[in-house]
Amino acid sequence: MAEIQSNEGGGKKKKGGSKQKKLSVHIDFTPMVDMNMLLITFFMLCTSLSKPQTMEISMPSNDKKITEQDRDKVKASQAITLVLSGNDSLFYYTGQPDYKNYNSLKLSSFNPQDPEGLRAFLLKRNSDAVYKINELKKKKMLREITQEQFTKQVSDLKNGKQTPVVIIKASDRATYKNLIDALDEMQICNIGKYVIDKITPGDFFLIKNYDSKGTYSSKFATK
Amino acid sequence: MSKVKVARKSTRIDMTAMSDVTVLLLTFFMLTSTFVKKEPVQVTTPASVSEIKIPETNILSILIDPQGKVFMSMDKQGDMINTLDSVGNQYGITFTQKEKDKFKLLPTFGVDIKQMKEFLAKKPEVQDKILANYGIPTDSINNQFKVWVQKARKNNSELRIAIKADQKTPYKVIKDVMTSLQDLRENRYNLITALKNETAK
To answer: Among B11, B14, B19, B42, which would you mutate to test the A interface (most chain A Cβ atoms within 10 Å of its Cβ)?
Structure first.
């Protein structure tokens, strides 16, 4: 639909006829715009803008050949065991499980605002590392240290001797979201050492004992 | 007094600027977006604060739906054919060239290997519809999922495994998949999540 408008001006001649006539070229872009809009609509509907995020995870090998000596032993004082149960409920205990005292198992929640929740608890346990990492983050913001230095120092802090070790145990009734939430808390609370482990009958016992406020274990004790 | 003549104005609008804008937008969308893969089941991934992006190539993605059905997809067609061949060998099934050509075009696969021939003979539209009813068997007696992963790894050692599961999936299913991967000594893999903005104070 391109059209050329010749401006003849009704036959009036200006200063001789040797000058070339000025031609203004108008191109109608409407079909072009139509087509582009169509293409944009197509791309908007058929593609996804953001690439999905991922969480990298390394599981322990369940190779039977690994001997007891090769395994990393965790100090009982550093160990925190999370038990993910059904209905989004979450329990934790520190150190060795205490089957006699039902209070050793604590009910917690994924709610970040909850003062008894997992986040508050882990931040408190890991306060040293969290504090140092926040310092490092500030330094990085002020460009005092480079990205590489930052990453290295953070990983050193996360894997330090004093940091807690979290064992995540999920029961069959827990959902995938619970697991991801728990793993997420590890990242938020800067915990470098965590592992997903299989739930044991002992953990079920602890939950049952907690629910019955200790009567479950006393039944066994009297026998 | 002469009559006031109303000049006829042409209502033509210059579309050049508009065209510029649309082309710019088009370029932006073409460069930043990736195509959505057709998936047999709708999966809502849980959100996490992790900001690691998934690499673009050499991905073996494992899709798990809330009922625990497992599907797989690979991004390289050559790998898909080789993997199908080796899995077929394991179960004593040979595929014709035509079937292989059909298989490599599948965006996601997840059919019991014994029903694969039957499935591949169907039309693509029908395949899309019924794929959600299948799923790779993962139970301990007939763990074809393990065989698929093993063969895929053999054909491409740089393959990265990504698990994409619905947030309502029971942990039992995830555990089965994770245990199978552990048995194959695939101890490092990615869990696909959506983005969540949250940091500790």
So the answer is: B19
Backbone angles phi, psi at A80, to 5 degrees: -125, 130
Query: Are A52 and B12 in contact (CB < 8 Å)?
Result: no
Using alpha carbons, list the distances in angstroms from residue A155 to A66, A67, A129: 26, 27, 10
In order, the DSSP letters of B165-176 are E-TT-BHHHHHH
Q: Give per-residue pLDDT as tens, A96-151.
A: 777 777 777 778 777 777 777 788 888 887 777 788 888 888 888 887 777 788 78
State whether A33 and B50 contact (CB < 8 Å): no
Q: Each residue of A172-189: b (16+ CB within 10 Å) or e?
A: eebbbbbbbbbbbbbbbb
pTM above 0.80, yes or no: no
Q: What is the pLDDT of residues A92-110, one digit of tens each?
A: 888 777 777 777 777 877 7
Half-sphere exposure of A117 (CA within 13 A, CB side): 14
State ipTM: 0.73
Euclidean distance between CA atoms A219 and A74, whole angstroms: 32
Judge whether residue B82 has pLDDT over 80: yes
Using the 8-state DSSP alphabet, how is residue A66 labeled? -
